[in-house]
Structures are given as C-alpha cells and as structure tokens.
Hints:
The chain is of the alpha+beta class. A 5-stranded mixed sheet has the order 1-2-3-4-5, with helices on both faces. The radius of gyration is 17 Å and the shape is globular. It contains 5 helices and 5 strands; from the N terminus they run βααβββαβαα. Helix 1 packs across helix 2. The chain has helices at 10-23, 34-42, 96-111, 125-133, 149-157; strands at residues 2-4, 49-54, 61-72, 77-87, 116-118.
Amino acid sequence: xxxxxxPADVPVIHALIRELAEYEKAPQEARASEEQLREALFxxxxxxxxxxxxxxxxxxxxxxALWFLNFSTWRGVHGIYLEDLxxxxxxxxxxxxxxxxxxxxxxxxxxxYERLEWSVLNWNRPxxxxxxxxxxxxxxxxTVYRLTDDALAKLGRTAx
Length: 160
C-alpha cells in the first residue's frame, strides 16, 4: 500500500534516509534532522513531499519516496524530481518500489506534469535495471554538477 506521508511519519522517514545513506556508502552525508524534515514536508511552505510504502500484511513502513516539483522551461510545465526512493532490502522485489513510482507517475499524469526525473548512482546496477524495466532511460548527455560546503559558501560570498 502506498500513502501520503503524515507528520507522524517523520521519524520513520528519517530512519529510512539513514538506511539509504548506509546503502549508498555515505552515512556521513545524511545530516538532516527530524526537525528539518518536519519543516520541509509539513511546515508553513512545504518544500518537498513524501509517500510511504507499507507492507500489505503488517502495515509496517518498508520504503519511501521523497520528491519535489521542478519546472521545464522547454515544456512550460512542472515535473517531479524524485530526490530519494528507498525500499528496505528485506522486502525488495515485492513491488513496493514499482508502486511508489507508479503513484508519482499517476500524480504527474493527473496534474499535467510532463517529467518524472531522478538520479541513480552509476554502480547501482540493480536499481538501474529496475528503472530501465519500467521504461526509464538515462540522460547520458547530461552531467550533474553540485556546489556544496566550502565551494558553495565561497561563491555565495563573491561580490556580484
């Protein structure tokens, strides 16, 4: 079962983010606090949205998708950028990941959004195979760039 996250889900979302960071071999990078997540998801001006995958038998949360709106200047409409998709290893293959992506695709179609995009680590062959089985295609002609930490601060302090 897939459902929209509620404020009561923040601790489990936080725990799943930590699990994802461990899986991606970067636990030190996952610094978001529960308070930051609560504000981002349920504050006065939500910046992101989340869905929870629950085990059909136990109702226990077993995965999540965290996403936000982007905008295509070429298409002139919003899209969804999927920041994180994670399903606990013990239940992978049970359809939870597909159900989460199906829900996001349904949101796109119902709202007239024309893109559902995300990034995947190059070494994550199981995820790549799964995404391609759904019809997703890599955007090989694009390279993601990121400014963080000292480089971001340095550029932000540069006089215009």
